[in-house]
UniProtKB/TrEMBL annotation:
This is NB-ARC domain-containing protein. Residues 93-118 are annotated as: Disordered. InterPro entries: NB-ARC, P-loop_NTPase. Residues 103-112 have a biased composition (Polar residues).
Length: 531
């Protein structure tokens, strides 16, 4: 094949229409991956990976038979015509190395290395590498005598010392970078995520799959979907907090597709215009957190494209929570055309949470659907949250299994049932479960029972929280002032709400407390107040 013919085929393979073949070629030649490893990296079947490899070989017109020979033929083509394409050394043919030509040499000394004569060799030192527990004859057969001069020994020791110092410096720098990004991650999550910091149960499989996507450089668009209360926000928060720093992101953004108000003085003005923000505001929020100045063009597409280009220049992590509340969420997802490589934001990544499935809007998106926790995890959660309830402590696991059946393993529902068991002393455990089983709108029924069981002061705090925006995290002082409760009543009511799983403390122990309620409870109270 002539050079220009090869380069034409190479450029054709890099086109957006051949994006999948291009990804396979890089994995096959640059990273020396097997068919199975390629399939796993691209989240495809092994047969699909094998078929793409065959298509690539046909595309370049390889003449050899057999996959190994075809790959070596491609290696030679790239070495001859496109040396900037760095082929993995392990897949060179046996007679090809980094400095040799592309054909076997008949000479016994193909690289013309000068062979020293006895007269030209200065006084030498012999170093023998001797293995233990070998007899002398085997040592003579297996061991090499390496002849080096004293000056060369000194040079080797000097180089080894430089390597050790370099590697140590690199490790220290990497650890420092990880510490810095971890601090930034913690700061962003504490101020924006509003996720409960309590122990999570039964999320290991979800977390492991998300970690795989987070670490895969070919995956950049991820969604976590599921019903309200299943724990989407909490799982993503834990994923980012525990693993985000190790992936190499330089910055992180957490935005929610709902309006947020934090100042007490805004509460009296009731400046709540709708429950969600539009696409322009979301993009502006992301740019602001990343300290990116968007162009002042009236055309939103210009701003959106500008932000896309910025996200390609460095590895940023963007989390968009409650995406389904964004009016133009389909427009946002469809805006990342999977067949246009210019829309690929790598090395940055976007993670979205939503109550609605999103994958049908974009085939590039990797989606995980959370369907609740399993039965053993449900029992663990019940015993953890109900350790102060005598009836739960005395119940056997088998007696608690019906709670899993009625809740579908959704943590929010489980916690509300635990609260109902703790506060309703007239009904037996089995009667409570039977009553819950026959409720059509389970969450509304459980919230109704829970709100009827708490004090007026506690309900006053919940009602005050609904004066702010849904998904807001309110600091201790602002919430206390706007609730008009004295210090003792306020503190007791806060503890009561946390104990009943109706209020979340969204900050760590070293930070000032901030409080939030679940969006489902927020909607229930707003609806109840308006009736």
């Amino acid at each position: 094949m002539e050079k220009q013919q090869f380069l034409d085929k190479f450029e054709e393979l890099k086109s957006p229409a051949n994006a999948e073949r291009w990804a396979v070629l890089q994995l096959w030649l640059v990273e020396a991956k097997s068919d199975g490893e390629i399939a796993k990296a691209l989240d495809k079947d092994r047969s699909t990976a094998t078929r793409k490899i065959i298509e690539i070989c046909k595309h370049f017109g390889t003449e050899a038979n057999g996959k190994k020979e075809q790959r070596q033929h491609l290696v030679l083509l790239f070495r001859r015509y496109c040396k900037d394409f760095e082929v993995h050394p392990s897949i060179y043919p046996d007679w090809v190395d980094g400095d040799s030509s592309d054909r076997p040499q008949p000479s016994t000394n193909p690289q013309n290395i000068p062979i020293p004569t006895p007269e030209s060799i200065p006084e030498l030192t012999t170093l023998e590498f001797i293995g233990r527990d070998q007899d002398r004859s085997q040592k003579q057969t297996n061991l090499q005598n390496i002849l080096i001069t004293p000056d060369e020994i000194q040079d080797l020791l000097y180089l080894e010392e430089k390597v050790i110092i370099s590697e140590s410096t690199s490790i220290i720098e990497n650890n420092t970078e990880n510490m810095n990004i971890q601090q930034k991650i913690n700061r962003v999550l504490d101020s924006h995520a509003n996720a409960s910091r309590e122990r999570l149960y039964g999320i290991e499989n979800y977390l492991e799959q998300l970690k795989t996507y987070l670490e895969n450089k070919y995956v950049w668009l991820i969604s976590v979907v599921g019903s309200g209360g299943v724990g989407k926000t909490s799982v993503v928060e834990k994923l980012v907090r525990d693993y985000g720093a190790n992936v190499g992101f330089t910055d992180i953004v957490w935005v929610t597709a709902k309006r947020r108000y934090f100042k007490v003085e805004d509460l009296s003005e009731k400046e709540i215009i709708g429950s969600s923000i539009n696409l322009e505001a979301l993009v502006s929020n992301i740019a602001t957190q990343l300290q990116i100045t968007l162009p002042t063009s009236p055309d939103f597409k210009v701003q959106f494209k500008y932000l896309q280009n910025k996200l390609k220049q460095a590895p940023y992590l963007i989390i968009i929570d409650n995406l389904e509340t964004l009016e133009e969420y389909k427009q946002l997802i469809q805006g990342f055309n999977p067949y246009d490589l210019s829309n690929n934001l790598s090395p940055s990544k976007i993670i979205m949470t939503s109550r609605q499935k999103l994958q049908s809007e974009n085939s590039q998106l990797k989606e995980i659907e959370m369907k609740g926790i399993d039965r053993p995890s449900t029992v663990e959660l019940i015993r953890y949250k109900g350790d102060h309830v005598e009836r739960i402590a005395k119940a056997t696991d088998e007696q608690l299994y019906p709670i899993f059946t009625v809740s579908d393993g959704i943590p929010l529902i489980i916690l509300l049932i635990v609260n109902l068991i703790a506060t309703n002393h007239q009904l037996t455990l089995s009667q409570i479960i039977n009553k819950v089983l026959h409720e059509e709108n389970l969450s509304s029924y459980l919230y109704f029972e829970a709100l009827n069981s708490i004090s007026d002061e506690a309900y006053n705090i919940l009602r005050t929280l609904t004066g702010f925006s849904s998904n807001s995290s309110i600091c201790y002082e602002d919430l206390k002032i706007s609730s008009n409760l004295d210090d003792n009543d306020f503190d007791e009511a806060i503890l009561e709400l946390i104990r009943c799983s109706l209020l979340q403390n969204t900050c760590s122990l070293i930070d000032k407390p901030r409080y939030a309620i679940h969006s489902i409870l927020f909607e229930f109270i707003k609806r109840s107040e308006s009736e």
